[in-house]
Amino acid sequence: MTAPLPLPRVRVIRPATVEAAIAARAECPQHEVLAGGTDLLVNLRRGLLAPTVLIDITGIAELEEIRTTGDRTRIGALVRLARLAEDPAIASRHAALHAAAASVAAPGHRRLGTVGGNLCLQTRCIYFNQSAWWRAANGACLKSGGEVCHVAPEGERCHAAFSGDLAPALIALDAEIEIAGPGGRRRVACADLYHEEGRAHLRLAADELVTAIEVPASAARSGYLKERIRRSFDFPLAGVAIACRTEGGRLNALRISVTGTNSRPLLIDGTAALLGRRVDESVLTAAEKLVAKQVRPMRTTLFPANHRRSIAAALTRRLLGALAAPAAAEVGAPPTEAP
Ligand SMILES: Cc1cc2nc3c(=O)[nH]c(=O)nc-3n(C[C@H](O)[C@H](O)[C@H](O)COP(=O)(O)OP(=O)(O)OC[C@H]3O[C@@H](n4cnc5c(N)ncnc54)[C@H](O)[C@@H]3O)c2cc1C
Ligand code: SF4
Asked: How far is the C-alpha of 105 from the C-alpha of 100, rounded, in Å?
């Protein structure tokens, strides 16, 4: 058995307010934000990051609140995934979010892992998420300071995949992200938090912090399905969230979002063309095709890219079919569910 890699020596700052955390971000150029630490600590041990300061935001009480006002649920960035997965109100109001939270990693990760950490998760690639000696032996790539991408050597960008489970659910549910910075707070649609570039996939300034998500209530049915290598705990090879509404048996709203295939979670274009139609075989095939055409998996996992494309398309068919069925219950992906 290999010995665990030591954590580097760092100074830890524990601000008690959002304002103090933002000031600390501006003052310490070489820092990382620490929430649940389930992703960050692994990356630190592997030498993927070299901060001199960790800004531990877990002392900011404001970020732990869940509040329902009128037709919106506000969920603080420090709310733990286990809380979302166990909350019956989240299950009944925002089924896709509930199912996505329940599908993240294993129970221990969900008890520590937070909403903000899940949204700001680093992108992943088999050439990057490795120990320092592995990376040194294989040569650095663009994301680790080298000059070539091992996945697409002729290109100039990094294709590492965003693999968070919550973002597609929030995109399907048309949620907004609240971001705090030195100039105050702003909101963006969840899809607009991301870029298609594996080295810098977040549209966050260096001194900004995700503080909350706001999810609108909706009459749409929603759900989330993912496929992974290890069913007990694993990142998605592909994950699909859908929110849809039918009236008189015909679709009158449809949003599909996919994770695990691109450097950002995708909102699938072209779903408007399916509105007004019954969810029959031809609509399921059309939705499947929209997804298969728009996702861009690359060789960033051990699974072939084309297979991940097929998974995303197949999950779309299965999920849309289940949600559009007359007695659709919550459709999700508990860790032991068969595909
Ligand atoms: C074995 C294993 C399996 C996993 N499986 C999954 C999986 O199936 N699905 C999945 O989605 N994830 C998975 N993860 C990753 C991780 O556990 C979760 O994504 C978790 O939600 C991350 O939250 P955290 O609070 O622990 O984040 P942290 O590790 O604390 O932070 C993650 C990143 O977000 C940044 N950050 C944190 N909070 C904020 C904020 N409020 N504003 C700005 N930046 C912030 C940090 O600086 C860091 O870069 C897995 C991890 C492991 C080790
Ligand atoms: S996609 Fe290319 S640049 Fe990005 S982490 Fe993988 S090998 Fe490195």
From this structure: 10
Q: Do 222 and 323 contact (CB within 8 A), yes or no?
A: yes
Amino acid (one-letter) located at 281: E
Low-confidence ranges of the chain (pLDDT < 70): 1-4, 326-339
Within-domain flag for 96? yes
Same-domain status, 38 and 167: no
- Residue list, ligand 2 pocket, CB within 6 Å: 125, 127-128, 141-143, 149-151, 158-160, 198, 300
**Per-residue pLDDT, 261:** 98
* Mutate which of 48, 134, 144, 159 for ligand 2 pocket (most atoms within 8 A of beta carbon): 159
Q: What's the confidence (pLDDT) of residue 337?
A: 38
Task: For residue range 27-65, list pLDDT tens digits in order.
Answer: 998 999 999 999 999 999 999 999 999 999 999 999 999
| Number of domains the chain is built from | 2
Structural domain boundaries enclosing 242: 66-120+161-324
Which of 18, 33, 57 marks a domain boundary? 57
- Tell whether 99 is covered by a domain: yes
